[in-house]
Amino acid sequence: MVRYFLNEAGIENAGFIEQDAHNFIQAHKRNMISGGDAQTMINHFMHLQSEDSNFFYSFQVDEDGRLCNFFWRDSISKLHYECFGDVMIFDTTYRTNRYDMICAPFIGVNNHWKSTFFGCAFLRNETSDSFVWLFQTFLKEVFPGTCHRLCEWHIDRNAQKNIPQLYFKSGFRYCFNTLLWRCNLESEFELIWKKMIDDWDCASNTWLQKLYDLRKKWCPVFSRSTFPMQDMSITEFVKHYEQRTIEMRDIEAIEDYKSRGDPKIFIEDCGILKHVARVYTRRIYTRFQHEFLQGTTKRAINVETEGSLTKYIILKGESENTEIVQFNALGNSIICSCHMFESMGWLCCHALKVLFFDLNFTSILEKYILKR
């Protein structure tokens, strides 16, 4: 039919070629979730809701009454979000199902430092209307105060596409990767960025200019104080998601079991380690103990006190690198320039060196033990 029309009207008059028509038809088909598949999925959700009173799902239809966006989560996902929702990953990378819809899972990290699902959605497109509907559905309001982060891995991939003439030169790539992953201070980032721009004469590169403007959304040094389904039908993917959720919760149950009893404490009669052994899960305790032992290798090379505030400059091993730890005696609060507590959830070796070895604390202050 299309070929006949083009032959009769002429390509110059039609304004499109046969391949354009083919692409349009295929895209339209992908956007149309079959009625049977949509109804099967909704029936499945209704069944799950009958077994779990807190199971929730919502969907949106287009002007023709066809399913275009939908979201679901069960009661355990809701509980996990309430406990661990201080940090959340929202990833719209995947788009390989039968209808070419965007798979958008909400993922968090539980108290065993393992991934957990908060819910999942499928979206027809990435328009603002679709995202507003989804976020309103998920939280009943769009995130007004959320700190949005850009994925460093995707930035690295985009650099390969946008600045290949620079990226594939080893000297530039080393500098670029340092900016992505290895900067410890904001001032260090600024110096390395300026050096990269000057050395490689790329001040006029618009992609790099935009990347620099967005630096607080992707470079970790600016955000330390913030914390497979090919050709599947929609119903098949939902069941695949459920199976993966079960597997993740089985892992969580195993970690809960491992956390029973007392862990091995490397230093006997150590008050702080005994304290955290009672309140942390086994995996987090292991990481905390590592930081505590690292604290034994640190030393303060300068101490300044002004009123209730004491500032310690901590030497990091044999290198000349330092971190600044500030302790306020009024509120018994401690802050380190490495911001490990703010970004990871447990105190760093520099803060522990001050609390335990300098100030003789025998337990961790309650404010530094997260409820999660």
Taken as a percent bin, the fraction of beta residues is 15-25%
Rg for CA atoms: 27 Å
State the major sheet: 5 strands, antiparallel
| Backbone shape | flat
Q: Low-confidence spans: pLDDT under 50, at least 5 residues?
A: 1-6, 8-14, 27-35, 227-232
Q: H/E series, N to C?
A: HHHHEEHEEEHHHHHHHHHHEEEEHH
Helix/strand/pairing category? alpha+beta
Biggest sheet: strand arrangement: 1-2-5-4-3
Quick overview:
It comes from Solanum lycopersicum. Helices cover about 50% and strands about 15% of the residues.
How does the SSE layout of this entry go?
Layout (H helix, E strand, L loop, with lengths): L1 H8 L1 H4 L3 H14 L3 H17 L4 E6 L5 E7 L1 H10 L4 E2 L11 E8 L5 E9 L4 H12 L12 H11 L1 H4 L2 H13 L3 H14 L6 H8 L1 H4 L15 H25 L12 H9 L2 H14 L3 E8 L2 E7 L6 E7 L4 E4 L3 H5 L4 H10 L14
Antiparallel strand pairs: 1-2, 2-5, 3-4, 4-5, 6-7, 7-8, 8-9
Describe the structure.
It holds the Pfam family SWIM. It comes from Solanum lycopersicum. Keywords: Metal-binding, Zinc, Zinc-finger. GO terms for molecular function: zinc ion binding. The protein folds into four domains: 2-31, no CATH class; 35-149 and 226-250, no CATH class; 152-222; 263-368, no CATH class. 49% of the residues lie in helices and 16% in strands. It has 17 helices and nine strands. It has helices at residues 2-9, 11-14, 18-31, 35-51, 75-84, 128-139, 152-162, 164-167, 170-182, 186-199, 206-213, 215-218, 234-258, 271-279, 282-295, 340-344, 349-358, and strands at 56-61, 67-73, 89-90, 102-109, 115-123, 299-306, 309-315, 322-328, 333-336. The protein has a five-stranded antiparallel sheet, with helices on both faces. Helix 15 (282-295) crosses helix 17 (349-358). The longest helix has 25 residues, at 234-258. The radius of gyration is 27 Å and the shape is flat.
